[in-house]
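Treating backbone geometry as a discrete language has practical consequences that deserve illustration. Part of our work consisted of pairing the sequence of a single chain with a tokenised description of its backbone. We regard such an encoding as a compact summary of how the chain folds. The amino acid sequence and the backbone structure tokens for this protein are reproduced below.
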Amino acid sequence: MAVETRIALITGGAAGIGAAIARRFARQEIRVAVGDVDREQGEKLAAELGGISRFYDLDVGDEEAVIRTVDRIVEDNGRIDILVNNAGITNDKLLIRMSKADWDRVLEVNLTGAFLVTRAVVRHMMKQRYGRIVNVASIIGIIGNIGQANYAASKAGIIALTKSCAKELASRNINVNAVAPGFIRTRMTDAIPDDIRQNYLKFIPLNRFGEPKDVAELVLFLASEQASYITGQTICIDGGMVMH
């Protein structure tokens, strides 16, 4: 089966990197299920993409809702071939000022959410003996960052989850990889003061910030047959900020 005929679920797909991935997939004739809590933006994107896309109200932290929504996507489309775990939030505070609630909410969405959606989706992928899962991590999960203990821990967890799932699911022809974006221009990064953004630029050898479309191209590759011999890997897409 060619990659153009596949069905993809993208969590957090209504805006930012998720929306860029949805648009890139749609251009390859991949049918996209946009999962998000932002109904207005999600339905707007689905309308933009036309019949190749449909919005699904999805809170990745709600276990019952995840199972129900994944089953509905399979019912509507017959299968799910590609899962992109992109949903994520930040709540930055210095460690001594970070409450347990601050910690729990970021871990619930970023890490537990990816676990819940992956578990629900792979039940279907295992039956069809095919799947491509791409988890959106972050270079912060590799290098850490001041004021982001919760976010860094969640993204490091995504990297570990990726490796474990890759080993468990390889025998069923399900590949699991992660991408680790660096400084990518989104609404979130646009809110950062310009002097701080310019300081980040000093640490990027390619001397520019990334765009959501850069991440989308990498995710498309990992979801394609060209990447059929790649699994359990985390690929940094950061202009050279992290080299290891």
